Amino acid sequence: MAFQAAKEFLEKRGFGDRIKEFDVSSATVELAAQALGCEPGRIAKTLSFQGKEQPILIVAAGDGKIDNHRFKERFGVKAKMLASEEVPEKIGHAVGGVCPFAIENDAVTVYLDESLRRFDTVFPAAGSDHSAIELGCDELYEYANAAGWVDVCKLPE
Questions:
Q1: Fewest C-beta atoms under 10 Å: which of 30, 75, 92, 152?
Q2: What is the dihedral sign for C-alpha 136, 138, 143, 146?
Q3: Which SS3 state, helix, strand or coil, does residue 155 take?
């Protein structure tokens, strides 16, 4: 169901032909990178956190890790990910296929992490654990209806 909603959302914006569906799982950064044949950093993972009142989605480079101190400084709360069973209910997508498109809850705010900007294009999921779409960062920002860019991830050295 979430895949269909994301697909319809992207098709309405003229990006339906960019959606990639896989015969193998793309539920983790590593699996998605293997399915796409790209480096893990280009996987735009969408992480679900509980904000002060409503959920927050952070779309970050696949090789980035949330920096708890920076997250708390930016959002005023500890970085607490939603439990896997809460994600479909609060976001509308299941873990492994969470994406910043076709979110059921209008109160969810999406942010893009600066870690993505080092790539010309990135691959967020498209609503399932067997899909992705290639987008430029500006396209991702626009179609995710992002509230802004944040710097809450640290990258490997």
A1: 30
A2: positive
A3: coil
Report helix, strand or coil for 58. Answer: strand
Sorted by sequence, the CB contacts under 8 Å of residue 73 that are 6+ apart come out as none
Query: What one-character-per-residue DSSP string does 93-138 give?
Result: S-TTS--SSS-S-TT-EEEEEGGGGGSSEEEE--SSTTEEE-EEHH
CA 18-20-26 angle, 5° bins: 140
Quote the CA–CA distance of 42 and 45 in Å, as a whole number: 9
Contact 8, 127 (CB under 8 A): no
Q: How far apart are the C-alpha atoms of 91 and 76, rounded to whole Å? A: 21
Compute the radius of gyration of the chain from its Cα atoms: 14
